[in-house]
Amino acid sequence: MSGSPFDVPELLDQFIEYLGDSTSDLLSCAQVARAWTYGAQSRLFRAPHVSNRAFPTNGNTISHFCYALNTSPHLLNLVEELDLNLVRNAGADANSIKMISSLPFTRLGMLKTTLPSNEEDLNTADPLRLLVNLPSLRFLALDCSCPPALFVEFLKPCSPVVQHLELTFRDALKGLEQPDTVLLAWTRPLKSLKLFLCDFDDCVEPAVRLDFTLGFLDLSQLGAFGIDAGVSSPWNMIRKANLRILDMDTIADSAVIDLGEFPNLEYLRMVIYSYGRGLPTMLLPTLLTATQCKHLRTIVISLAVPFTLESAEYTELDGVLTSLSLPTLSIVEFEQRHNASDNDSHQIVEFNSELKTALPLLRARNMLRTASRSDVLMERRWQELVNTL
After folding, report:
1. Among 63, 23, 66, which Cα is nearest to 43's?
2. From which domain of life does this come (predicted)?
3. Contacts of 263 (CB under 8 A, 6+ apart)
4. Do 388 and 223 meet the contact criterion of CB atoms below 8 Å apart?
């Protein structure tokens, strides 16, 4: 019989998981005993974040990361996700980029990387294509500061097994001609696509069209689609009847969205931007079109810019949501972003209390949920959703 609870592998795994991402604690655990080393290392190297930003205390983390994997090759089998941020001049760190790109990862399924903004630095980052071509890769997230033509050039050799693509665009997209993508072809249909535009005024119409830029992608079997309000959606490339997950940003007075065009929708999240008070004009008419979504289980309404509703407006919203008569609808969640400050926490408590009082019908049916999420938590939830496809 084991002499200590920590000799039981399942309990040890739970203990190490509880430490989260605390590097110092995990490093300490790895040195306690040989039996603890593998569990601690698995947590440390499962999803590392490395950057070419030079820190005064520990230098370039890309170099340190490569050194650790080269001196202990068994760690390569532990890396499942890699977040690679080229925040500085990539040309000054070309050797490290080549080194990390040539590492023979065997279980890397998710790659997140920031592409440099100019052509010279992007050429230096060209070895990253080796990572993009890994046969194990399923999820690719690119933060693109470069012009569309360079972005497309980088994606040309993308792994044929990539199923989930997430693209973040910067202001460099505006006013530029769309690249010629006729000769490009995505070798496998995507299961999920998420588009985000950082340089975006919350209350203006879409500023950037991506129909031609994304013409080389096969979106015919898309099951999850996330669309930012600053991007004109390539709806003509998507079979709406296939979508099961829809996460969209919109503005309060935008056109009504016909949810009846998405008959197999299971999860709907609407982020509504509004600087004014009162019920967004597009919200209720859009919700009323959901009566044909017979598989809809969850509706999330995210208040990107908090607004205050009158009692009658809450009553109207409560009535519409409970009148949909959808047999599968079990959760209506109101989401509010936060920055983890004390003031934000206080506002969230007030928000929860207000909703429970103002939406009695949803509460009586045990459908009402409230949530506060940071950007990190919202990103994690998106990944959990697309993993169900």
Report:
1. 23
2. Eukaryota
3. 241, 292, 293, 294, 295
4. no
For 25, the token pair is 């604690």
Q: Which residue has the tokens 């203990």?
A: 15
* Helices H / strands E in the chain, number of each: 13, 16
Kindly state the average pLDDT of the residues 115-136: 77
Please give the torsion angle defined by the CA atoms of residues 285, 288, 294 and 295, in that order, rounded to the nearest 10 degrees: 50
User: For the segment 306-340, what is each residue's pLDDT rounded down to a tens digit?
Assistant: 667 788 989 999 999 999 989 899 999 988 766 55
| Collapsed DSSP state (helix, strand, coil) of residue 91 | helix
| CA dist., res. 228 & res. 234, Å (int) | 12
Buried b / exposed e over 187-204, threshold 16 CB at 10 Å, is eeebbbbbbbbeebebee
The pair of structure tokens assigned to 1 is 């019989």
- The CA-to-CA distance between both ends of the chain, in Å, stands at 43
**CA atoms of 104 and 127, how far apart (whole Å):** 13
With beta carbons less than 8 A apart as the criterion, state whether 137 and 107 touch: no
Helices (H), the chain: 9-18, 23-30, 34-46, 61-71, 94-101, 119-124, 129-132, 148-155, 283-288, 311-322, 342-358, 360-364, 375-386
Distance of alpha carbon 291 from its chain centroid, rounded? 28
Sequence-ordered list of residues with C-beta below 8 angstroms from that of 294, at least 6 positions apart, any chain = 263, 326, 327, 328
Does residue 244 contact residue 264 with C-beta atoms inside 8 Å?
A: yes
| pTM of the shown model | 0.83
CB atoms within 10 A of CB 364: 11
Sign of torsion over alpha carbons 30, 34, 36, 37: positive
Cα(27)–Cα(16) distance, integer angstroms: 11
- Return the closest-CA partner of residue 78 out of 138, 51, 38: 38
**Cα-Cα-Cα-Cα dihedral sign, residues 92, 95, 98, 99:** negative
Q: How far apart are CA 131 and CA 100, in angstroms?
A: 9
Q: Picking from 12-21, 90-99, 292-301, which range would have the lowest pLDDT averaged per residue? A: 12-21
Element (H, E) at 265: none
